[in-house]
């Protein structure tokens, strides 16, 4: 992971800025503060010249904000809440594609699985934050994590 850390930092921030008009900064895990108790992990696998998985972890409430920005609707709009998890999945899909292009170039072809999403407890969140494989971000004042795992 450490050799791809800079790529994840760059791609994560660029994708959120360009697609959702949200600004992210990589931070040390000690800088992640949240009172949230509901989190989501969005995960997908990829296969091809390289295979592995990429995942993103965030506060559940952040999904509606992502959808709001992508759709151009108010964050309190029912549509933003209905489509929040889909927006988070799409963000991960783009992050995965761009990270793989940065790592392997544009020639290799990769098959990406459909992103899956599941709830994560606050206790599990704290363990993930402490895991050095995750890159920690502050995304418009919200904490988020992302990691890329290559499998042999």
Describe this structure in words.
The structure is a single chain. The chain is an alpha+beta fold. It has a single domain, classed as CheC-like (Chemotaxis protein chec, 3-Layer(aba) Sandwich). It has five helices and seven strands. Strands 1, 2, 3, 4, 5, 6 and 7 form a seven-stranded antiparallel sheet that branches. A hairpin with a 2-residue loop joins strand 6 and strand 7. Helix 1 crosses helix 4. The longest helix is centred in the middle third of the chain and has 21 residues. The radius of gyration is 15 Å and the shape is globular. The relative contact order is 0.27. The mean pLDDT is 94.
Task: Break the fold down into its secondary structure elements and pairings.
Elements: H1 5-20, E1 24-27, E2 39-47, E3 51-59, H2 62-71, H3 78-82, H4 84-104, E4 111-112, E5 116-120, H5 122-130, E6 135-139, E7 142-151
List keywords for this structure.
single chain; 152 residues; alpha+beta; Chemotaxis protein chec; seven-stranded antiparallel beta sheet; 5 helices; 40% helix; globular
Q: What's the mean pLDDT score?
A: 94
H/E series: HEEEHHHEEHEE
The CATH homology group name: CheC-like
Q: What's the alpha carbon Rg, rounded to whole Å?
A: 15 Å
Short account of what is shown:
This protein has a single domain (2-151), classed as 3-Layer(aba) Sandwich (Chemotaxis protein chec), CATH 3.40.1550.10. The protein contains five helices and seven strands, in the order αβββαααββαββ. It has helices spanning 5-20, 62-71, 78-82, 84-104, 122-130; strands at 24-27, 39-47, 51-59, 111-112, 116-120, 135-139, 142-151.
